[in-house]
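for the recovery benchmark. tokens below, seq after
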């Protein structure tokens, strides 16, 4: 008998998938509160392919990188 697949990891859309801190994503805040989204800091930031590649596959398109991780990568 084959064992069941391992459970999928729980992805918190409000936490950065790289460091675990709050990502302060305006879109996620709007979804969680039901209020219209405000302008988000991320619209003024470039996310390099190298930075995006560091996001675990299971969290891609589910959780946003936080501003601190994005800024740190931009200055590296």
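predicted aa per position
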């Amino acid at each position: 008998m084959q064992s069941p697949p391992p459970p999928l990891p729980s992805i918190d859309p409000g936490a950065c998938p790289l460091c675990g801190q709050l990502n302060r994503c305006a879109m996620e805040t709007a979804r969680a509160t039901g209020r219209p989204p405000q302008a988000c800091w991320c619209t003024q930031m470039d996310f390099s392919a190298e930075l995006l590649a560091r996001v675990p596959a299971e969290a891609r398109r589910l959780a946003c990188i936080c501003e601190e991780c994005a800024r740190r990568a931009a200055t590296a």
